Amino acid sequence: MARELSLPRRGSAAGGPEALVRAGYASADTLILEAVLREAPIGVVVLDRDLRIERTSRVAEADGPLTPADAGRHLSDVWPGVPDDVIRALRRVACGRVAHVDMRSDSPDWRADRMVISAVLDDAGAVGRVVWMWTDMPLAGRLNGNGHRLLGLR
After folding, report:
1. pLDDT in tens for each of the 154 residues of the chain?
2. What are the DSSP calls for 7-68, one per residue?
3. Which of 79, 90, 85 is nearest to 50 (CA)?
4. Which residues share a beta bridge with 132?
5. Nearest C-alpha neighbor of 141 from the set 51, 43, 39, 41
6. CA 97 and chain centroid, separation
7. What separation, in Å, do the N-terminal and C-terminal C-alpha atoms of the chain show?
8. Which residues of 36-75 are buried (b: 16+ CB within 10 A; e: fewer)?
């Protein structure tokens, strides 16, 4: 069964997203990105070149110890359980050695079916942002360490 939500009526409350754009509080692109991150059925973390968190999707927050308040903090400070091979891939993209990585971690504690790490270039053609996405992390990975014990996997 599909879950549906109704759109707000025009002119309701604060005027909706269009009013935010008109008032200069947000660009249309920012509002689109926020909607995608809110509703995407995948984990998404947007990082700067130094691997500081800029934005996260709801799924990323559910899969790890991330919260919206973590914006500006280094990924390894917020989520120390990210496997070394994933951190190395994030760094390769952030420094511009590669533009895109499609991988699966070798870590037995990290079981996303697929991870994609992509560079977003700035106007000068340098890496401005790194987008890390993943799908299908099983329940054991979502339970932050206790999952293996609770599910009898260790």
Report:
1. 444 444 444 444 444 555 544 555 557 777 777 887 788 889 999 999 999 999 999 999 988 899 989 999 999 999 998 999 999 999 999 999 999 999 998 888 776 778 999 999 998 999 999 999 998 755 444 444 444 333 333 3
2. PPPTT-TT-HHHHHHHTTSS-HHHHHHHHHHHH-SSEEEEEETT-BEEEE-HHHHHHSS--G
3. 90
4. 45, 117
5. 43
6. 21
7. 36
8. ebeeeebbbbbbebebebebbbbbbbebbebeeebeeeeb
Q: Please name the CATH architecture into which domain 41-150 falls.
A: 2-Layer Sandwich (3.30)
CA-wise closest residue to 129 among 52, 43, 73, 35: 52
Which pTM value belongs to this model? 0.71
Q: How many CB atoms lie within 10 A of CB 85?
A: 15
Domain ranges of the chain: 41-150
Q: Residue 148: what residue type?
A: H
